[in-house]
# Entry
Amino acid sequence: MIYTVTFNPAIDCVMQVEDLALGKINRALTQEFYFGGKGVNVSYVLRNLGRKSTAWGFIAGWTGAALETALQADGIATGFVHLPEGNTRVNAKLKGTAAGSDDDVETAVNASGAPIDDASLQEFFGMLDKVQPDDFVILSGGIPKGTPEDIYARIMEALDGRGTHVIVDATEDVLLQSLPHKPFLVKPNDEELADIVDCDPMDLDALIEGARKLQGMGAENVLVSRGGLGSLLLDATGNLQVAPVIKGTLVNSVGAGDSVVAGFVEGFLRACEAGLSGADAYDRAYKLAQACGSATAFSPGLAPAELVEQLLSQLDS
# Structure
């Protein structure tokens, strides 16, 4: 079983506008709603690839109920804790031209998440009893203000000794605190890793040494995304792979990193189901991770399965 955990999910309201002017009434040409958050994005990509997962985390109010209903309607199982106060955040994103300019821009206003009370945290920790050996628990994204900074480490401590594959996609301190619990995979981007090890994010050799440092501190696999420069993987066998970016037209970078995580998990599971292990399994996982990340970057939405398989075939050729 795969569980994705999102502490601070969101509904994005995306509106297309022309000649956006501050202090005036503006009319949207289009309006669309996207239900997400990093762990939720992972669940959507896994669904596109034909893999079931359960989306866990915290929701609140009528907006949280709307998010949960949307995921279930899209075929994603949910197990959210319902918070007693507040609402799941709604982010406003305006895309189009600003007044006096022909250039396309995006203006975003991101809201804060609902506070997570102690009773709701305890309810969530009780849910961890469902996790079995060889299950995957994917911890993604930031945490609402007021939530303990070491919450990911606490979750991993509760799972210690169960043989669970825990993946951590988080920034600096939250990531570092998880390392003693030996996560199966950590996925910093180049800037996040550079902040951790105090190096130039453009210095590939320094990033490789940084990945080795994270592995020495407990991470089994370290996958570093580098945007337009590609990525690198230091796997649990000690094998290092550095891959250039797949060539294509960038359409949307939102969710590309989450797609990489989903692709790695799906690729690893496919490899294991095919009887592969060790470096061979990690190689398969890495290739599908690259294909999924690029498929999202080249598409308006998250990693369409047909494009994923097309890009994967290029990497296999």
Summary: The mean pLDDT is 93. The two ends are 31 Å apart (CA to CA). The chain is about 40% helix and 25% strand. The first helix runs from residue 38 to 48.
